[in-house]
Structures are given as C-alpha cells and as structure tokens.
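Handoff note, outgoing to incoming analyst
You'll be picking up this chain. Sequence as last confirmed:
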Amino acid sequence: MKLGPFSYVLVPSAFGTLSIVWWEIETGPKVYRLFLPDEHTPAEDIVQVNFPGASSLSCPAIAELGERLQAFLAGEAVEFELALLALERYSAFQRRVLVAEHGIPRGQVSTYGRIAKSLRVPRAARAVGNALARNPFPIIIPCHRTIRADGRLGGFRGGLDMKRALLEMEGVEVDEAGKVLTDQFYY
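Most recent structure output, in case you need it:
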C-alpha cells in the first residue's frame, strides 16, 4: 500500500486538541494515526514532527470521525468503527490485540493478562501491554479501558489524569490512589 501524501485534521476537545493523520487510497480515506493532546506541544507541531509536509485537509468521513471524537470526549456514548483505520500496516498479533481492545465495551475494563488469555496466548500479557502502548488510534481503540492486574490504572499516552477522566466519564470508579473499583471486567 502506497503511503502519503498525508493530511491532517485538528480536533479541539475539553482535553486539548487531537490530531487525525490520514491519507487517501483508491477505496477512500484511511486514518494512519491519531495523536492525543500534549500540554507541552501544539497539535500541529506534533503532526509536522512526525509527518513533515502533511497538509491541513479534511474530507466528509474524516470530518465525521472528528465530530464523533469530540462527542466521545464530551462524555457521549459513541462507538467507533474499524473500517477507516490503517490496521493492515501492523503485525497479525498487534491487529489481534487492537481488535480485542476495540471490543471492550464502555463502562468495562480489562487487563493485559485477560486480553492475552482471550487471544489464546496466556503468557503474552507483556506483549499485549507493548502493543497497546503503541496503539496508533487511542480513543477509537479504547486502550484507556485496560488496566494493570492489580487494579491500578497503568500507563496511557494521554497521561493518567486523562485515563482516569475517560474511565470516570464511562461510569468506572477510580479511587484517589488510582485503583479501579469495579467488577465489570471484560474477557
């Protein structure tokens, strides 16, 4: 699959500005990357550092995705489809992890170990964690819904404050120490 030229759309939200990086292929637009807000670096700079020469351009499908992201980040129950994502550029294992993560419903959480077991590779919790740490489509693939086995939040590219806020918006309780208080586990 030929890559580029890349375009991007900036999506303002209460958390800051997200960036959707995409390009057009024969069948339509494909999302290559979604960047979460960074309080130290403007969204456009993040795009230009990672995709030099990308142009600010939208299309109906990407504009709709931006609106859906804004609605989600405002607390609305929004589901995202995988069809726009350039998943084919990842290994089979990474795709399996990302698809499994996408299946975790709003208001529920999972652990790296539970996802590994659901993929029939029970000893691959660390590999699942590594795949999710590199999730190129956060929010769309809701890696904020996966926590550590001890119930603590674990990492998140958008920061732990954002992870906590997203989970709490979805009805998941998190205590002051960062431990998730739920029995709503998926997988």
